[in-house]
Amino acid sequence: MNDPWWLVLVKAVAIFVFLLLITLFNIVFERKVVGRMQHRKGPTMNGPGGWLQSLADGMKLMFKEDFRPRNADRIVFNLAPFLIAIPAFTVFAMIPFGGEVTLPGGIITRLQLADSEVGVLLILALASIGIYGIVLAGWSSGSTYSLLGGLRSSAQMISYEIAMGLSLVAVFLYAHSMSTANIVEAQAQPLVLPFLGVETPFQQWYWYLLLPSFVIYCISMVGETNRAPFDLPEAEGELVGGFHTEYSGMRFAMFFLAEYINMVTVSALATTLFLGGYLPPFDLPVLNNPWLGPVWFTLKVLSLIFVFIWLRGSLPRLRYDQFMKLGWYWLIPLSVLWLVMVAVLQALTDPNREREPALFVLGVALIVILFLVIMFGGKGSEPDVEDGELDQVDASGRFDAFAGGYPVPPRHGQQLPELTGVLAGETENRGSGGGSASTPPADPASGGRPGPIPASATPDPDEQQEH
């Protein structure tokens, strides 16, 4: 594209404004949807219907104290938020918002800032830069919680970046291009029903032809953006706030902004590669107006944003080992298997023959296999004692819940021994040579568990004050 410099500047400003506005909308939209799912109303105070809540939050963060820990690395601590926010904005330079339009003055241009023959690879490369900001934010904060959050995020990014990249190779093979604009134009064909040969008014989008790639990409994009149920780097119960625990004010706002822009980025990439980009859902002349391209594109992106919100409001957080097993044991092998299927099908079949029925059958079969493996696979008989519980069994084979230093509940078939030396106050009384006044006697009928504390063993607060 050979656009004049002022048109390039206008496009860049338009993309920047679009990302800011859609981020402000998504924040309130998420809070309202999650509120409805939890039988609440969500934001209602600021603005009509509460839709200006994002502006109020931004103003609040602007005037908050900009706190920096004493033992933090000052330069890296200040630089990390920019390393996350800047790539989030830059990625959208390769995303097409519409086709060719004619501007006043006869200037013909595409509703896209820049394009390249390897545009999708540039998007993946720019999106990967954000992980450096997360790791540096965790390392420079001087906090164990922040460091663990940064390490988790880097491992998460590496694990799911592989599956995401493999899922996109099938799109490249079918579209014969890595340019985002060419991939969208390749989907502008009428959809023919497999095995029936009936042409429909719908367009041939790749989510239908390459269904396993679309499913794997959707799972990977949730893991890439650290969103629930894959929000392990920011798990509040384990790591407080994760890599941005020590950030406040506008620095924290940049992390928050980058997270929502990354959600829009992966949704926009899914829209471009699998949902036809700016193409309308029906191939009708009324809907094919090039100026309506940004409208169709935005509606598709918002539908994927709703999927993010829906997952957050309905699914619990996965354990770290479950999350890694999902990526390395299931998504990556299935991505490789599906890629081999697509490559072999394209190499062995006649280019003049339709490959859509075979792709549809193979894709559905692979999705069924993925579902069966997740639901029923790998559930062999569990041993009586797992490797992590060997230190919780004494020499006689009895279960000791306090052997590892942290109390754990007994498993099925295990029984807690008598809690001798565990209850508060017994160690102190034993050390002073006296009995345990606060330890209740063990009840034989309850399997050695302590019984209720007798009233005579409870000290009177008035007596303690007199003594």
Automatic annotation (TrEMBL):
Residues 407-467 are annotated as: Disordered. One of its GO terms (molecular function) is oxidoreductase activity, acting on NAD(P)H, quinone or similar compound as acceptor. It catalyses: a quinone + NADH + 5 H(+)(in) = a quinol + NAD(+) + 4 H(+)(out). It is found in: Cell membrane; Membrane. Keywords: Cell membrane, Membrane, NAD, Quinone, Translocase, Transmembrane, Transmembrane helix, Ubiquinone. Residues 437-447 have a biased composition (Low complexity). GO terms for cellular component: plasma membrane. It is a multi-pass membrane protein. The chain crosses the membrane at residues 6-29, 75-98, 118-137, 158-175, 205-223, 260-279, 291-311, 323-345, 357-376. GO terms for biological process: aerobic respiration. Its EC number is 7.1.1.-. NDH-1 is composed of 14 different subunits. Subunits NuoA, H, J, K, L, M, N constitute the membrane sector of the complex. Belongs to the complex I subunit 1 family. NCBIfam families: PRK06076.1-2 (NF004741), PRK06076.1-4 (NF004743). NDH-1 shuttles electrons from NADH, via FMN and iron-sulfur (Fe-S) centers, to quinones in the respiratory chain. The immediate electron acceptor for the enzyme in this species is believed to be ubiquinone. Couples the redox reaction to proton translocation (for every two electrons transferred, four hydrogen ions are translocated across the cytoplasmic membrane), and thus conserves the redox energy in a proton gradient. This subunit may bind ubiquinone. HAMAP family: NDH1_NuoH. This is NADH-quinone oxidoreductase subunit H.
